[in-house]
Amino acid sequence: MKTQMIVLNGGSSSGKSGIVRCLQAVLPDPWLAVGTDLFVDLLPRSLREPEEEGAGSGRGLVIGADGTVTVGEDFLRLQDAWTAGVVAMVRAGARVVVDEVFLGGGAGQDRWEAALGGDVEVLWVGVRCDADVAAGREVARGDRAGGMAAGQAEVVHRGMRYDLEVDTTHTEAMECARRIAAQVK
Amino acid sequence: MKTQMIVLNGGSSSGKSGIVRCLQAVLPDPWLAVGTDLFVDLLPRSLREPEEEGAGSGRGLVIGADGTVTVGEDFLRLQDAWTAGVVAMVRAGARVVVDEVFLGGGAGQDRWEAALGGDVEVLWVGVRCDADVAAGREVARGDRAGGMAAGQAEVVHRGMRYDLEVDTTHTEAMECARRIAAQVK
Amino acid sequence: MKTQMIVLNGGSSSGKSGIVRCLQAVLPDPWLAVGTDLFVDLLPRSLREPEEEGAGSGRGLVIGADGTVTVGEDFLRLQDAWTAGVVAMVRAGARVVVDEVFLGGGAGQDRWEAALGGDVEVLWVGVRCDADVAAGREVARGDRAGGMAAGQAEVVHRGMRYDLEVDTTHTEAMECARRIAAQVK
Amino acid sequence: MKTQMIVLNGGSSSGKSGIVRCLQAVLPDPWLAVGTDLFVDLLPRSLREPEEEGAGSGRGLVIGADGTVTVGEDFLRLQDAWTAGVVAMVRAGARVVVDEVFLGGGAGQDRWEAALGGDVEVLWVGVRCDADVAAGREVARGDRAGGMAAGQAEVVHRGMRYDLEVDTTHTEAMECARRIAAQVK
């Protein structure tokens, strides 16, 4: 059966977005790219930066000064609706690459699998990067709170079941994309 | 019945995005914001800027030097899948604001209504702006091809059936948002 | 004598950047656009967001949760060097539009005049916008801490000596630019 | 004598910006970061994208569909003024990192040295990256015209005299920054 969805899971600054853009370039069909960052952009500002804003409701996404990320009930409820929407795009015929940061590891995969219902062909890809290398890239990109990369490097992979893993520590995004594309049916 | 979706339709530089952010701020519930610009960002680069890239496949979105926008078959097929996805988000419980540029006027509304299936409560909003004012704002924002604003100002409203119209020519985004919010059930 | 520099001063979200882009479009010569936002982008991240970062050195730019802006000694010292650089660009023949937020009102103008040395032809322009309208536009743009617009709307104009004032409350950026351009020699 | 300026020269997508941000993070003093991309942002839109805009004046920066970059007389004249401005910032006491793409190789260095006048302490750094690796990163970043990276990888280094060279092909931006910082007096 044709691969309908590719899910990349990896920590912040592990290089997922670059791999996604390379995948879109090397895969012969046009694939849509969606992901966690995109979902966060859809939220009202009050759910995106309560800490900086001083709102402190705790109902959205809170990024601490040390890069710790916590999410509240409104975030989770809307994320479920978003996930249902992405599944519907796939069922409607779009091929979709999702890049995710499963802060709860395998629980994130379970959440997607429940939404997918068992008859969608998914390629699960782990994107690894050594914590110290990811921390350096976090400084180099300059748009992320310090500490996110190191804090997420290992924890996101706990309890995950992958079809394929790539490691950006010593492998370029384009080469990772080619390895992934080779597994796409 | 509670309003589940708000669709804003207006030409480029008519002020839709600003109204969407104000709506997210004034509506008491958290609403997700999606729209045409977002969908375009999901596409592979090869479908987004073929003219600049010299690809010339014509299968994606082509923005001419004069701001004319044309779309090809891959764009339309993936846009249908995206639309189905947004409808699924609404059915899964998210309240969603969509900002659109219906280049084909009422045909765009028909497309959405077919996808919505008749039992989703939608508030249809026309966002108008005098063509010359929109053209000036296009220069002021600095990130759009010249000519889009003027070219789209009238045509997007042909054959549309609105619940409410706002005009940003002399009305601030926040005030437009308040008028729209007052119609949300 | 030919106008060599245009300085726009106004509070956050008063519409300066839009006027600058329109000025660049309507003035027949090519003008360089520099400004406060640009200077801030040149700073190391540690001087840009100490509060969010938890650094708390107070030596750079600190934006409080209520939109209050304070600046420390490193910021001021580097800003003086930056100002000297912009003056040198003008003396080297570039025509330059500067958009500024003089948090200290007329003291900011004094600082520039000291750097300019008296023989550069400057057009001083005040950009006004009613505080409540600017506050609404701050929400509409979505990328500024709430409260900056209202907090700065009046204070930046105290003790300023302008050649010309424009008010974006009811006047489009393009029209403001045309009025300013008409005063450029 | 204390290093007052660091000039990084390398082709598009060779990793200069990442190194600059890492340098700002690891150097104990605050350094300002300026560069070619920044200068281009200061230009009027009519000098930035004439080809796309259809203006075709050839007086600014023209990026061809194949990534070829050519610059016209207005660009060169304003760039000289900009360079004079950066030198003045350094003379006024700011320590400055410049990232450059010397399309004419050593001629670009000569231009800077003429502006610097011989008494500014500069560290000249070459940033190399294998052309095919840079081309892959160009796809991964997704915001550059295809072909720029490969076209510039070698040519920018012709006739250059460096104090130090780094190669991002197999070395992280942070590690390159540490090697450069070790040479800063």
Model description:
The structure is a homotetramer of 185-residue chains. Chain A has nine helices and seven strands. Chain A is α/β, with parallel strands linked by helices and 185 residues long. Chain A has one domain: P-loop containing nucleotide triphosphate hydrolases (Rossmann fold, 3-Layer(aba) Sandwich), CATH 3.40.50.300. The first copy, chain A, has a five-stranded parallel sheet, sandwiched between helices. Chain A has a two-stranded antiparallel ribbon with strand order 3-4. In chain A, strand 3 and strand 4 form a beta hairpin. In chain A, helix 1 crosses helix 9 and helix 5 packs across helix 6. Chains in contact: A-B, A-C, A-D, B-C, B-D, C-D. Chains A and D meet through helix 1, helix 7 and helix 9 of A and helix 1, helix 7 and helix 9 of D.
Write the layout of secondary structure elements.
The structure is a homotetramer of 185-residue chains.
Chain A: E1 5-9, H1 16-26, E2 32-35, H2 36-42, H3 45-48, H4 50-53, E3 61-63, E4 69-71, H5 73-91, E5 96-100, H6 106-116, E6 122-128, H7 131-141, H8 148-152, E7 164-167, H9 173-181
